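User: Predict the structure for this protein chain, please.
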Amino acid sequence: MRARSLVLLVAIGSCSMLMHAQEGKLQIGPGDLLHVQVFNTPELEQHPRVSESGDAQLEFLGDVHLSGMTPAEAAKQIEQQLIADQLVLHPQVTVSIEQYATQAVSVMGEVHQPGSYQITAPRTVIDMLALAGGVTPSADRTITIKRHGLDGQKISYFLSNNANAAFDKDVLVYPGDTVLVEKAGIVYVLGDVRDPGGYVMDDNQSKLTALQMIAHAGGLNKTSVPAHARLIRKKPDGSFDEQNIQIAKMQKGKEPDIALEPGDIVYVPFSYIKGIGLGASGITASVASAAVYAH
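Assistant: Here is the predicted structure, written as structure tokens:
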């Protein structure tokens, strides 16, 4: 039992250190409530709120402009002011953001309820996604957080399918940040398979192979001709590259499976008579009407 308690305390301590480390890089903004402490000078401890003009009204010092500074920079600014006003000869000041001003976090992209959500304190990415109704089936697992201020710093968070990994590596979102959930890549399997359509690359690797695609599509029909299957891939200039792939040999282990890229089309013809002669343009034309599935 004591071992469990120790592990829990270590985990809580690690999370607290991570939170303080991230907070230390954030900039103070109007409306933030600060906690100012001066070592060995308890009478100078105070909790000023930053005004709209960016000033914090401090006892003995008056208005000190702190907006746009990190807490460490603000502490240095207060130390310099205390020395300049001859209040403390060698001050050691610490500044922390006790409460953030109410600011909206924009959650955009592949979530069920995109929009702006008001928060006054840091929340985890998972919390923010929950407020937005969760991610859609076509959401990419890599989520981008753009920090408010900090020159638009961007942080990536990987929303793992594994619960432990998702929680262990969760990232904090701060008031004013923007959370963007992009659309995952989609690959298509068309022709003589049980469930032709588009399949979202939403696994933990965001990858699919040709055989995995066939499996997600329910497998081949008896009338299919896997020896004449084709892979159609769009090139940067907008044209299509077409190549034959030996699905039957792949299934027998005689040829390596092929990794697919977003937008790829795997086409399995119906028979030697029907479908083999269908060109890439005819196959790609049917993509628009293909149903999209999340596996």
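The mean pLDDT is 83.
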